[in-house]
Design a protein that fits this description.
four-stranded antiparallel sheet; 47% helix
Length: 100
Amino acid sequence: MFKRGFKKGAHKRILEALKDCFGVDVEESDEEYVLSFGALQKLTIRVSDTLLVETEAKEGVPDGFIVDTNARFRCFLEKATGYTAKQRVKKAQEAVKSAQ
């Protein structure tokens, strides 16, 4: 889900947010973005009507790497969607309630 006005230009914003928050090269192909960083073996991002995120974690990673990776991931989500972590939780709860 994107905040109003964030859907337009989403591909460019997502690529910039990934590079800004993670600081690594991002593989691009057919509107899909893939990277590896810290505690993430693989992070795959796809853009459609919503932001589709798939993660694959590395095993045996030190806690410091996990905390840093999580902070960078939250930074990316906020820059990409326009919603803070608290706002994303509220939107997710609303979606669950409306689906019931």
